[in-house]
Design a protein that fits this description.
CATH topology of one domain: Topoisomerase, domain 3
Distance between the termini: 77 Å
Helix content: 40-55%
CATH superfamily of one domain: Topoisomerase, domain 3
Number of helices: 18
Strand content: 15-25%
Strand order of the largest sheet: 14-9-8-17
CATH architecture of one domain: Orthogonal Bundle
Number of strands: 20
Length: 562
């Protein structure tokens, strides 16, 4: 459009175009992860900035504010709060199954406590975080200009780890959202290797290795059919529960001990909800609930009254609190860096394998190029050593360095690079041992070149390298599963599951009043004893029906009104 020229346009068309532009900007640049490295732009920029700052696991910690400033100034022109919040989450072991950042200081808690200000906390890459950037400077991925074209940033990370499944992802875009759960590293590696060896494998076959999500907070998940449905379609709900145990103390009193809570549940909020239910008389069987959690793990202790039915109370906790939640799979990610798609478990693994093939191919091409460049230089040095007397004479006869360079190229059929290397060669290279070193290095480079050329010519060998590198990572970082998976569904809780089965007395009067009473108020009366008043009645009213029933019995009421 020419500057200063007014263009007539319908406002509906303009708004439509602007909305689409905005939606695509949010989807591609902020909210959705890339299927290849499993990261959103802000995560990728933080990791890359920390890598460029030298904040590797062996380095000293640096202030989080320094990292945030680096990310904002060079790569991510948005608010510092968004960057710091992302950095904090990447360091929380209750948010990520395998944290990518190693934090020092107050990085928040599972109780919902916020992290300390960025000027107080410190951070560096974790070992797994460093793995994500392995070989990034070997031309393994594409780079693009940053927001002001002052430097380059990676489009995607090499990611030797299947990060999208490893730590999962959450994000809300315009018109869509993603919700992918974390998984166990060892199980994912097993599934990837199986898929490489059996490309026709189904999602059900892959579930022999990946049993289900593996949340950092542990817990229990139910219903293999529901998990299979979610993995097959990319969508679906899965029921999650905290791990709770009913124990009896020496005095015969029952307690419910909660040692793990569902993923993304705030522990303090859970305790507050339990206290509120007790206050509202919805959980009258609970005498006390307290938090005894420490550095060794979560421990919520619920003391029950003497007449309480522990299993009934636990069932009510599942129904009325976040001790039972539903994780809704919505596995949406960017394919090709721009196209959002709902992906199955198999699709995610296939895209990951394809990405690793590409990374290893590009890395091998880079190493081959470097090896050939070095071979070329070594061949020149070897030729110079074979004709050392003539080389020295040529250099001595030359008036200037430039003349010597030209004469070497002309007389000995050397390349410009070889001539440069000869001119900077030290006299110590003339020694016998130094000469042998050059010959040995040349032979070694030729072996490497032959190996890399053979590797690049065979796709199956590249796939084998994908498997070998994954196996190596598994040996380094694999750990036991935290979340237990039950094959059967959790089952719908009925009212009978929530109400203790107790005897009671139902009394109906001629006046139409009905009352339920505990039979314990009645007792055997001896001679001269004084009876107990079961219920107060109006004058001229009397009991019509009295029945001994259970709290699980059903009462049917019939009226003369139909």
């Amino acid at each position: 459009m020419d500057i200063g020229k007014i263009q007539q346009k319908r406002i509906t068309e303009e708004i439509k175009e602007d909305y689409i532009d905005y939606a695509m900007s949010v989807i591609v640049r902020r909210a959705l992860p890339d299927v290849r490295d499993g990261l959103k732009p802000v995560h990728r920029r933080i990791l890359y900035a920390m890598h460029e700052m030298g904040l590797v696991p062996s380095a000293k910690f640096r202030k989080s504010a320094t990292v945030v400033g680096e990310v904002l100034g060079k790569y991510h022109p948005h608010g510092d709060t968004a960057v710091y919040d992302t950095l904090v989450r990447m360091a929380q072991d209750f948010s990520l199954r395998y944290p990518l950042v190693h934090g020092q200081g107050n990085f928040g808690s599972i109780d919902g406590d916020p992290a300390a200000a960025q000027r107080y906390t410190e951070a560096k890459l974790s070992k797994i975080g460093e793995e994500m950037l392995k070989d990034i400077h070997k031309e393994t991925v594409d780079f693009r200009d940053n927001y002001d074209a002052s430097r380059q940033e990676p489009v995607v990370l090499p990611s030797p780890l299947p990060q999208l499944l490893l730590n999962g992802s959450m994000g809300i875009a315009v018109g869509m959202a993603t919700n992918i759960p974390p998984h166990n590293l060892g199980e994912i590696v097993g599934a990837v290797i199986h898929l490489i060896e059996h490309p026709e494998a189904t999602v059900e076959d892959l579930m022999q290795f990946i049993k289900g999500p593996d949340f950092p907070t542990g817990g229990l998940i139910y219903d293999r059919k529901a998990i299979l449905q979610a993995y097959s379609t990319g969508r679906g709900p899965v029921v999650c529960r905290g791990r709770a145990e009913i124990v009896e103390d020496k005095k015969g009193r029952f307690q419910i001990i909660i040692s793990e809570i569902p993923y993304q549940v705030n522990k303090s909020s859970l305790l507050e909800k339990i206290a509120l239910l007790v206050k509202e008389k919805k959980l009258v069987e609970i005498k006390d609930a307290r938090d005894e959690s420490d550095k060794d793990g979560i421990r919520i202790v619920i003391d029950l009254k003497n007449d309480a039915s522990p299993q009934k109370v636990l069932n009510r906790l599942y129904k009325l609190t976040e001790l039972q939640t539903t994780f809704n799979f919505n596995m949406i990610a960017l394919v090709g860096g721009i196209q959002p798609a709902t992906l199955s478990l198999k699709s995610i693994l296939e895209y990951y394998i394809e990405h690793r093939q590409d990374v290893i191919t590009r890395r091998s091409q880079f190493e081959l190029k470097k090896a050939k460049e070095r071979e070329h230089i070594l061949e020149g040095l070897k030729k110079a050593l074979d004709h050392i007397d003539e080389i020295i004479k040529t250099i001595k006869k030359s008036a200037t360095k430039e003349d010597a360079h030209k004469n070497l190229v002309k007389n000995f059929k050397l390349s410009v690079l070889q001539a440069d290397a000869i001119l900077v060669m030290k006299l110590q290279s003339l020694a016998g041992l130094e000469r042998k070193k050059i010959e040995d290095e040349l032979a070694e480079k030729r072996k490497i070149i032959a190996y890399l050329e053979n590797l690049l010519a065979h796709t199956d060998k590249i796939l084998k390298m994908v498997k070998d590198e994954l196996t190596e990572i598994k040996e380094k970082y694999s750990d036991p599963r935290r979340t237990k998976v039950y094959v059967s569904p959790v089952g719908q809780l009925r009212e009978e599951d929530l109400i203790p089965n107790e005897e009671c007395i139902i009394t109906l009067t001629f006046g139409g009043y009905i009352k339920r009473m505990n039979p314990k108020i009645y007792h055997q009366q001896r001679r001269g004893g004084r009876g107990v008043t079961g219920m107060a009645m109006r004058e001229e009213d009397s009991v019509k029906i009295i029945r001994s029933v259970s709290t699980h019995d059903y009462l049917l009421f019939f009226t003369n009104f139909g």
